[in-house]
Amino acid sequence: MLRKSANRGSTSNAARPLKEVAPVLLARVKAVRRGLLMRLSEEVEKMVSAIADDLSSGAAELALRAINIFRTTLTDCGTDSLAEARERLTDTARAIVRAHPAMAPMYNLGTEVLNAADTAGSIEELNTKCGEALTRFETKLCSSASRIADLVYDLIPPGEQVFAYSFSSTVVSSLLSARSQKKFFRAVCTEARPSNEGRRLATMLASGGLEVMHSFDMSLGLILPTCRVAFMGVDCVGRPGLVNKVGSWMLGLACRELNIPLYALAGTEKFVPDDVFFAFEDHERPGDETWKNPPQGVKVLNHQFELVPFTWIAGLVTDEGILRGEAQIEEYVRNVKVHPRLEELAFASS
Asked: Is the model's pTM score more than 0.90?
């Protein structure tokens, strides 16, 4: 498995002589940190802040909201020059990535928009091309969920208990789709602390007609052995493994020990290259979200994402089929590129 330090050295920028890229990267990183590149309207800032504070939604669901943020930004570009509009879109893309650096769709959505903006020859063409890019990405998100649901149907043993972890709109839609097709099973889930999005998962599954058993996270050793299969969403896929909500590592280890197949559900829009994969390590939430006013001398750690090895899952269920093993997954990852102006954010957090 790649470690963060080794991964940083494998980036495309690092392949070039350091003396060529360092001055440019350093200048732009300093500008980002000072906020000099931020050209966001008040409305866009509020929308970005709202998704940054959303700790219960999955990556695909937040990506759909990010699409609306870009559409609002395009409206704000009405009186901009072409260069100003590109900078405004760049700042929006960076703000969205900073809101959820562990979620790959934020990078890939931003890349699609910025690539479209780069090819525009006028402000009118920029609006058209970026609008088309947003529609394509939105369509891909929806079609990915539908394709994954079709594959998950065959993985659910009828009449058995199925474990699901944290909240993922892809997991929810897949399980409810199976239920709507008259496959009967019971869902089992836990709180998914510290944000307790497992309660939202339980609520949505129950509202869709599934019988749900819900418990606290540390009861995993009691309830997981009663299940025949387990599912979890994914926020990011890269060569080193899968990134998902904290607790996923423990679930993967438990499934391996109990010989229960664990399937991770992720559209290919969640694949990222090595350049930005480890950004999730820098995403730490305030400690008072889990323990308000701890005693002096106590530091509360609130990292909400972690890495799960591919060897701990039975398969990665994607819109391209079920991928099994590192070699199959790497075949897709190696072709993913992040726009250079977003790649810099990985360096900014180093």
From this structure: no
